[in-house]
Specification:
The chain is α/β, with parallel strands linked by helices. It has a domain at 3-194 and 228-255 and 299-319: Rossmann fold, CATH 3.40.50.720. The protein is built from 13 helices and 12 strands. It has helices spanning 12-24, 63-73, 87-92, 94-118, 123-127, 159-178, 200-210, 229-242, 259-273, 305-311, 319-332, 334-341, 350-358; strands at residues 3-7, 28-33, 53-57, 77-80, 129-135, 182-187, 189-191, 214-217, 223-228, 248-251, 256-258, 287-290. The strands form 3 sheets. The chain has a 7-stranded parallel β-sheet, with helices on both faces. A 3-stranded mixed β-sheet has the order 7-9-11. Helix 1 (12-24) links the parallel strand 1 and strand 2 (28-33). Helix 1 (12-24) packs across helix 8, helix 2 packs parallel to helix 4 and helix 9 (259-273) crosses helix 11. The radius of gyration is 20 Å and the shape is globular. The two termini are 38 Å apart.
Length: 364
Amino acid sequence: MRTIIVTGGAGFIGSAVVRQYLAGTGVRVVTLDKLTYAANLASIPGHDTNPRHVLERVDICDRAAVRRVFATHRPDAVMHLAAESHVDRSIDGPEEFVRTNVLGTFVLLEEALAYWKGLAEGEKKAGFRFHHVSTDEVYGTLGPTGLFTEDTAYAPNSPYSATKAGSDHLVRAWQETFGLPVVMTNCSNNYGPYQFPEKLIPVMVIRGLAGQPLPVYGKGDNVRDWLHVEDHAEALRLVLDKAAPGSRYNIGGHNERSNLDLVHALCDLLDELAPPLPGGRPRRSLISFVTDRPGHDKRYAIDASRIGRDLGWKPRHTLETGLRDTVRWYLENRAWWQAILDGGYRADRIGLAGAAMAAGRAAE
């Protein structure tokens, strides 16, 4: 049975990958996760009963623990998604981002390299891959035209994107210098079910449902390319299975929208699908504009033609269908996010999410 270690497997994107592996394949998954505030095992139904799933509660910076996981589970591949990812948090406290995203990736690379070198020559060693999952934010910002390609120069503008850029460079160096068989992907903004309620879409849905103000940074004219998390997870599995060592792919949803247009769409969906506000007030009337984030990148847009051309991938969701499905999911799964907001889940850290939402500090 093939075994894959998924770091950050209890997070938003990682849990989508784990759910797909458990539902549609015979793969054995080892979720390696520190279980920080944004991790949630409830995002992996059957995580404690499925015989093909193992949880290793491990900090990726703990070298001895990571080495033990490799020795115990003898993986065929590693998909590395564990990261600190909230831009606002990186501005308030960049040290944790440096530690997790840079040092943690270094530790994983070192232990993966030692493990891979120790494998006997043969199919398992030849097929081993270290898949590093990164972000389009490492490329910086675009003007009104143009797209990020796999050859775009790095120009990160936030502590978060700078630490992800640093981790990308480490991964490339471990292949070029030491021969570790790596593949790398850089994705656009993800959305969909099970997203922790400090990000833009779940914040707006939950606040809009309650009739609370919907704070939007600046003029709301920052543009992002939105990618449904299930489409992203499918692309990640495809790259891990089919891409040659050294390959790199951008993954995008072909769905550019300004933040304000996106919030308008969410308001309209809530007016259609959720109980009306008192007096029939439209939810667009809840929108307010707040002081912009420092270093807020103006526009991201992905050229995902290479992964389509080489591997035949394309997203299944349009933004219209994906947003409708996502809003329905949050309406139908209130218990999942309400447990986060009322302190029933990770009560020691939950105030951070509540404070972020109250201040309107929702990162894309």
